[in-house]
């Protein structure tokens, strides 16, 4: 709706309501006229509360602005202090002298009640106004659909939306957002893009708002461009596993991954996208050339480093705050067919991290470097035997962990079958420079697809046992290199006393591969470790594998990090207060906040992150 129309509708319909109430009462109409004039000529200090001129204009032209606390503040002097009202510059004061104060008060109460009724009417008409939008896709108000998007992989937070949009085109998304933008700040409607819903703490949910099921956005159709600098154009709702299969048809592949590929492009680019390839290629957000974004005002914007760079960098790692990623151009490289997958164990944390750090700088050594911690586990090597081969079976069988905390270095070397001999020699050479426990070298060869999709294989197994849809109280941290030993000493074996209910990943990445113009928050040092506590809670257990205990453990880890000033940053962060978000963003907070006011001035996007609220702070 045109803003001018909105304003006219606002003035005239309010007048109509009032004249209906007291058709013979000219004084009432004058009061309303005053209110309306005051609204269209607000005091200049309103700008103080409203940082964005666009938002200010929107607010003042919206019919809902009449019900805001701001208006109530404006009306307050009218109902309580007639002498201050007399100081106003509009005429017809004399009319009021003829009415007593009680009458005016009563009238104002009636006036506000009518506006409330009007507001309620508008809210209840929102579903039909959404339904009326001419879309290629559709809105769903079905309980089953709402229930589905009200939960996520974390399985701990649930917020029911009002509607689910299943878009078929980018304009479906743009029109919906524009419509909600036009409803103004008082509509309370928010919009959450939902990728595959694999968030952990409600980040893709919207309480009473609209959830956009990004997976139903099938445009653009995936398009692979071969040549010297290959790339693929994909929809923001595309799953990475589908991109892998499509690009492999051209002998190509994206370079940077997450450990699990049943996540969407928009979902991982909103966070970072980190895995064992990040040391070489940076996270997924370092491997994107272009984006198409629908901003919080419903505008469709193309962006890249060169074009609308501020939005481009803001959206990457931007936790969905500045726009909805509808399209992305992902960098590709020639794909290998096979992966040599290696695991070796360390009992000495210093030797483990020294080797990890050596490998992330070694040229052409390995293509994937990760690691994980093993605490209080028996029979682990026996489990490995089903998929890995010990290099020395006799020695391997004699290995005993003796209750020690162990650190597993996990490596991947990509190759094609015709290179097998050369690759074997290279791998052997690199392994000979490592300081792992000699008897614990395990290797296997798998296809590139099986390697990248390895977590899905575990998913299938866990699903069959009913252990996938359980609470996942995960904690992901970025820890500066100089603090990782201190962290390991305190946390592994002390705070975390076993790792049987989920892996604890640990591996270094180098910051030079990350772009500090993006929104992602990193520690200050050049090398930092990703430490991921990926526990699954056993429902209704009160033991160490129960939700309460795992949450308690996470709390202890965070408290220790804070107490010791380790300079740790949360990855996939979750905070609930502005103060905590400010601390998280540190010096980046100002630019983050500024970008929000430019690209999503009503703060309607990704409310589940709990960074901004869709309301204006008047205090
Ligand atoms: C089994 C598993 C393994 C994982 N492994 C890794 C890993 O190795 N590395 C890693 O980095 N992460 C990993 N993650 C975390 C994962 O990257 C995030 O949880 C990611 O957000 C999930 O993607 P999704 O498509 O399900 O997004 P959702 O959970 O649906 O959304 C996440 C956030 O992004 C927003 N969003 C979604 N789509 C868009 C869009 N198109 N435009 C703008 N905003 C959008 C949402 O509103 C929400 O705020 C893993 C998660 C799981 C469950």
Automatic annotation (TrEMBL):
Q: Name one GO molecular function term.
A: FAD binding
TM region(s), chain numbering: 99-121
The record's InterPro entries line, in alphabetical order, gives: Cytok_DH_C_sf, Cytokinin_DH_FAD/cytokin-bd, FAD-bd_PCMH, FAD-bd_PCMH-like_sf, FAD-bd_PCMH_sub1, FAD-bd_PCMH_sub2, FAD-linked_Oxase-like_C, FAD-linked_Oxidoreductases_BP
The record lists the catalysed reaction(s) as: N(6)-dimethylallyladenine + A + H2O = 3-methyl-2-butenal + adenine + AH2
Q: Which PANTHER family match?
A: CYTOKININ DEHYDROGENASE, GULONOLACTONE OXIDASE
Q: Which family does it belong to?
A: Belongs to the oxygen-dependent FAD-linked oxidoreductase family.
Q: What is this protein's record name?
A: cytokinin dehydrogenase
- Look up and give the organism this protein is from: Phaseolus coccineus (Scarlet runner bean)
Q: What is the lineage of its organism?
A: Eukaryota, Viridiplantae, Streptophyta, Embryophyta, Tracheophyta
């Amino acid at each position: 709706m045109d803003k001018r129309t909105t304003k006219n509708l606002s003035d005239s319909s309010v007048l109509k309501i009032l004249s209906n109430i007291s058709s013979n009462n000219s004084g009432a109409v004058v009061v309303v006229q005053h209110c309306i004039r005051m609204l269209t000529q607000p005091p200049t200090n309103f700008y103080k509360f409203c940082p964005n001129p666009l938002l200010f204009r929107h607010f003042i032209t919206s019919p809902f602005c009449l019900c805001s606390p701001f208006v109530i503040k404006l009306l307050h002097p009218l109902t309580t202090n007639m002498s201050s009202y007399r100081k106003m510059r509009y005429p017809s004061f004399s009319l009021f002298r003829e009415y007593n104060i009680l009458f005016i008060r009563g009238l104002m109460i009636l006036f506000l009640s009518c506006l409330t009724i009007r507001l309620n009417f508008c809210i209840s008409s929102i579903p039909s106004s959404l339904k009326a939008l001419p879309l290629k896709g559709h809105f769903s108000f079905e309980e089953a659909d709402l229930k589905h998007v009200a939960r996520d992989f974390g399985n701990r937070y649930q917020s029911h939306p009002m509607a689910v949009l299943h878009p078929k085109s980018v304009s479906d998304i743009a029109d919906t957002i524009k419509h909600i933008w036009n409803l103004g700040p008082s509509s309370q409607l928010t919009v959450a893009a939902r990728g595959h819903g694999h968030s952990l703490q409600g980040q893709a949910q919207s309480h009473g708002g609209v959830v956009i099921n990004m997976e139903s956005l099938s445009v653009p159709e995936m398009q692979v461009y071969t040549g010297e600098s290959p790339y693929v154009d994909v929809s923001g709702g595309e799953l990475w596993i589908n991109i892998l299969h499509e690009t492999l048809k051209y002998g190509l592949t994206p370079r940077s991954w997450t450990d699990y590929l049943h996540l969407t492009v928009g979902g991982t680019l909103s966070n970072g996208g980190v895995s064992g390839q990040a040391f070489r290629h940076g996270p997924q957000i370092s491997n994107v050339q272009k984006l198409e974004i629908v901003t919080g005002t419903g505008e469709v914007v193309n962006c890249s480093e060169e074009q609308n760079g501020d939005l481009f960098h803001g959206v990457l790692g931007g936790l969905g705050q500045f726009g909805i990623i509808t399209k992305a151009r992902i960098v590709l490289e020639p794909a290998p067919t096979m992966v040599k997958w290696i695991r070796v164990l360390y009992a000495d944390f210093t030797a483990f991290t020294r080797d990890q750090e050596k490998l992330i700088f070694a040229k052409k050594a390995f293509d994937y470097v990760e690691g994980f911690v093993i605490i209080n586990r028996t029979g682990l090597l026996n489990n490995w035997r089903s998929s890995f081969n010990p290099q020395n079976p006799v020695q391997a069988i004699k290995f005993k962990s003796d209750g020690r905390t162990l650190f597993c270095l996990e490596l991947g070397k990509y190759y094609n079958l015709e290179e097998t001999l050369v690759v074997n020699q290279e791998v052997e050479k690199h392994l000979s420079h490592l300081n792992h426990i000699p008897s614990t070298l395990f290797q296997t060869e798998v296809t590139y697809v099986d390697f990248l999709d390895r977590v899905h294989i575990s998913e299938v197994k866990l699903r069959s046992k009913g252990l996938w849809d359980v609470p996942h109280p995960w904690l992901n941290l970025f820890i500066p290199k100089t603090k990782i030993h201190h962290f390991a000493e305190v946390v592994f074996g002390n705070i975390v006393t076993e790792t049987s209910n989920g892996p604890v990943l640990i591996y270094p990445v180098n910051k030079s591969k990350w772009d500090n113009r993006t929104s992602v928050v990193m520690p200050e040092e050049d090398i930092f470790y990703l430490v991921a506590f990926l526990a699954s809670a056993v429902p209704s257990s009160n033991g160490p594998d129960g939700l309460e205990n795992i949450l308690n453990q996470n709390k202890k880890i965070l408290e220790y990090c804070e107490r010791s000033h380790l300079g740790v940053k949360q990855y996939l962060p979750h905070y609930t207060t502005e103060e905590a978000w400010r601390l998280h963003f540190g010096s980046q907070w100002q630019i983050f906040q500024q970008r929000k006011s430019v690209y999503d001035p009503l703060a309607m996007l990704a409310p589940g992150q709990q960074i901004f609220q869709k309301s204006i702070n008047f205090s």
